[in-house]
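So, can you check this one?
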Amino acid sequence: MADQNVPPRRPRDDRGWDVRQHPSTGYRDPDASTPHGYRAAHPGGQPEYSRGPQWVGPDGFGQPTGPTGGFAQQTGGAGLPNVDDDEEPGRPVGRRKALAALGGTAAVVAGGAALAMTPQVRSLFGDEPVGDATGTTVTDGTAARPSGQQPSTVRTYTEQNESYMGSRAGEALKKNAPTGGRTFSGPAAAAAETPVTVKTVLAKDPILHLARRATFGATPKVVADIRERGIDAWLRTQLDPDKIAPTRAELKLAELPTLKLSTQQLRDQRDQLNERGAQPEREMVEATIARQIWSDRQLYEVMVDFWNDFLHVAADFDGGEVYRASFDRDVIRAHALGSYPEMFLAANKHPALLLYLNQNDSRADAVNENLARENLELYTVGVDGGYTEKDVRQAALLQTGRGVNDGKYVFRPERHYVGKVKILGFTHANNSKDPKKAEAAIDAYLTYLALHPSTAKYVAQSLATRFVSDTPPKSLVDRLAKTYTANKGLVKPVLMTLFSSSEFWAAVGQKVRRPMEYLVATYRTLGVSPEASPKHDNGDNKRTPFARGLRQIHDKLRELGQYPMGQPTPDGYPDVYVAWTSAGTMVNGWNEAGDLLAGYRTTFTYTRPEKLVAKPPATAGAYVDALAKRLVQQKLSAREKALILGVAGVSANTRVDATFNGAIAAVARAILASPQHHLR
């Protein structure tokens, strides 16, 4: 039987998933028993029974589909809450337009800094009509996307990235991407020998480049650490995170009461936790946010985020409150820098994935193909990996028997299909219901998938997209895939190949921060402390200030449209800039930066903006230079500097005090709206 401790929800399946549990809604039919222990939804609404295999796929009962389904990434926009509240007459440059010009530049600087603003941002001020989500005003549907598909019909993690990059904005980015390269003896050697020829406003400093790509945001401490240790030694330390001491904030995670509870304890205490308003799935997300901001194990956290998009299980699925924290701890985090085949096998025996993709309901005489399909399409070989619908069905038959009972993984031999299977190049007699033999057959197949050449390429393409460029060179992808195969899916050798490749070091400024990355980097660069402000009054609230503050960040990220493990569908978030072009989201991020500078969230402690620079220069131009060096680790261009001086209504030679004559918060916020902060 299905886990009876998971409460039902109403079905809302408009994509054709098994209506008893769509991954985006988690609905489970409480009336799931039939003479065969299974009830599937017929398109006409009547239950359908059969003694032979019945297929429940993305198009509904008895309607399996091809390997290309359809989920669209929707990004939010929060409007213009306060970006124009400081527009004053008589200033040389309006703050609103200056901010838009600064932030909008980040939309195109990766493609060559050809324009001042994207069409979406320009449209805020009546300069141009709003375009589509790729930064164009006309979409003719003929862009070179995989199989001619639009983004809304693309599902796989890599394929959706390629689809978005088929737009006009994507083509502009491609023209500025680094081309082929080579591997050096190590990262430091590659950094020293690689010239940066792409157009970018970022400083072509390899230390800053590494800090931006291998962390969630460069800070003075991180940059100083890399310079002191050297590139190779710093990376060796980051690749051995267990030897890095936990930070103060990580120790404070003990204030999230459900984080330390086991799956069994979460099940047993469900009613009590509900009465207290504790939400385990949200506290897990908030712990992840805290680690992204404050952990010194930054490369590890970047890889945790990468795998949470690649091997994706949504935090908010029905049952996530019990099982998702364990999936994060025992699957993703346990193997983030280890072995992907081991991660993949562990995932396929974890209740979170088995419930999320309906495997608990699949049996020999009523087969649900959701997990079998996603194992091929999303988690290993990819949509172009060479599999067919017959392969999906064969895989679904082979995987029958795996499920969840009493909150734990179980194998039910009576549900397992017995018979020879052939999937891609894998064959197995699969001639026994004996649990050990049947499980061994399934694990052999999953291991085969995890080590398949198409999986090596798929993982390599995704890693190169995350760390190098929205359009990574084929030379690098091929090299990473070769390393993956030679090392049987070990993650660290692949990362070392990546960091030892000239393509990585040549790609300065070729990635734009997604909404979550922008906000986390803002917290990091402003040096926000996890301790509560002295002026904070927690009242009689049962949650600590730290826990409340993390919830506030979580809510803001939801508003921005991206938060850890937040994608409801199993494809994970897109990892390319043109999937995230939203003027409202960009403005909302700037306003949050303004709130942080003002210290509005008293659950944390902030450096006052006039204290960000230890010894502020006496003239406005020099002060902007010093503040930019503090916040974005480099000076701004002459044009950007002029825009920021315009925000304050002063010239470069104007004498200013530590408060920038009262404009320091506006100036700092403008720097955080610059392309130097939006790019990584």
About this structure: Confidence is low (pLDDT under 50) at residues 1-92, 106-154. Strands lie at 40-41, 47-48, 55-57, 60-61, 367-368, 402-405, 408-411, 421-423, 426-428.
